[in-house]
Structure formats: C-alpha cells, structure tokens
Amino acid sequence: DTEVTQTPKHLVMGMTNKKSLKCEQHMGHRAMYWYKQKAKKPPELMFVYSYEKLSINESVPSRFSPECPNSSLLNLHLHALQPEDSALYLCASSQLTRVSYEQYFGPGTRLTVT
Amino acid sequence: GEDVEQSLFLSVREGDSSVINCTYTDSSSTYLYWYKQEPGAGLQLLTYIFSNMDMKQDQRLTVLLNKKDKHLSLRIADTQTGDSAIYFCAEKKGGTASKLTFGTGTRLQVTL
Hints:
Chain A is mainly beta. Helix content of chain A is 0%, strand content 56%.
C-alpha cells in the first residue's frame, strides 16, 4: 500500500479565514512533506518533517503553519492568505530507512483564496 | 543553470514509443525519479534510478542515465492513450529527508 490521503479535496477560503489541510499515511514513513504547485509548473517544496520534527522550511511565509502531531499525520494551518496562494497543495511521504528515499504523493488539495 | 530542464510538449501516436528527456543540474545527485501527473491529480511515482546505474527497465518503461552529460530519459514502449499526462523528472540532493528538485515537466499527448 502506497497511499497518501489528503482532505479536503477542494477548499475555497476568504483572506480573513483560518483553515487547515490534512494529510495522512499509514505506510510507516517517518518523513513527510508539503509542496505547493501552481498551474503548469512543477511542485515547489515548502516544508519537510523528519521523525515528527521540522527539518526544512523553504522560507515559507508565516501565514502557512505546518504541524506534525504524530508519525502518520501532517497538517498545514492557513491564516490570512492572499489570492496568489491559490494553488494545488500536495503532501508526500518517504521512508527514511530506504536508501532510494522515493516520495509518495497524495492527490492534493485544490485551494482557492478569494 | 539551476533548472532541471525538460522539453515542454511531446505528441506521439498510439502504439509508438515515447521518449521524454531531462537534463539535470547536480552531478552528485544520488537518485533520479520519474513522476506522472494526470490533470487535477497528484504525482504518481513511475520509476527511479540510482546514479551508478546507466539503465533500468520496468515493464513498458526504460530509464537511461548518462551521468557524464547529466542526461536522463524515459522511454515508454507501446504508448497508450492512458499515458497522456505531464511527466516530471526529479533529482534528489542532500541527506535522507531532503528536497526533490523537479524538472519543468513534459506534456505527453497520445493521438489515435
């Protein structure tokens, strides 16, 4: 099983709202990732968690706040977003003990900021 | 340059072979990957190759790696309409949990 699930599938939010994206995997992977993908562009890394600790933050604005409450769950809390933050947000996970380190992606959350 | 380069578009006829090319940036990259993305969907891992290999075959997929030229290719044999998608190559730099740098993506269109 190589499934990463993400909820919700679609989200529309105003610039003053607070919302959260959720990602879950049950593959025993101890690294989890958030990517942002704009239309017709490749994914761009936002955050990496290793063993539930934040290990990489790619200079993401503080209106995006990641959280890894346990080894299976990854959240992305959103607050005071801008219209240019509208994008597909992808979660991925990988096994840290496997030397190929391949990342498995979820289906994404399509976010629209109005 | 810093970008992982791919050609933007490739059109092939059903049943023909497709070859998608990628030029990556870092000769110290240990693993290189191919992902497929269908419209509105996430990325599906197709295959990967370790940098000390020059070829890997997996059913209809063949990956060729020229480390000297930093060139990677993905050949899809007997291309089907279901193969229509965007294909991204990616290189892995750094330690265990680290970033993938994705190519610009190639849109493959399969015609009847």
